[in-house]
Amino acid sequence: MLALTAVFVVMGIDAVLDAFVTGRLDRDTYLTAVGFGLNVEEMKNFLAIVGIVILALCVVTTIEAIGVLGSREGVRHAAVGTFLVFSAVTLILSIAELMSDEVERSVAVAIVIGVVDGVIVYLLVHERTTAEFELAERARDRARSVRVAERAARRTSRA
Question: What share of the chain is helix, strand, coil (3-state, %, to 5)?
């Protein structure tokens, strides 16, 4: 999860830099903007928004990855939902691109990303993973119960 997120952090930073650093906007991006009817400033605004959205999603997936590493059950469920949506959207858009007249070379990368997202979902819902998370949650619940009982015992001994 973190490795995949790192790739998108780089992409998000690149988009933001394209938007804000003068002279970074390449000719192909400029021509694409003209094709969409955007001037240079509008394209820079669009790139800034895209970069900020990508980076915000990276923050969410990083938090989820850290929660999964900490064996938090609720965060695991959130990560399953997030990466399931990422996988579905990426694969659907990739298939649509494959069916278009002019297939971009980057479609192979998109398919790989969609499959990796799907593998992450599979690993998160696998029964061994689920069992490990349940064991970790039970251990935290037991430790919490012991702490609560110790506090209650200290309070009654003071009284």
Answer: 85, 0, 15
Which tokens belong to 88?
């579905």
End-to-end CA, the chain: 51
What are 4-43's pLDDT values in tens digits?
A: 999 999 999 998 988 888 777 777 777 777 777 878 788 8
Domain assignments of the chain as residue spans, ordered by start: 1-71
- Number of residues that this document lists for the chain: 159
Three-state SS for 29?
A: helix
Cβ-based neighbours of 38, under 8 Å, separated by 6 or more:
46
Angle between helices 40-69 and 2-20 (to 10 degrees): 160
45 DSSP 8-state letter? H
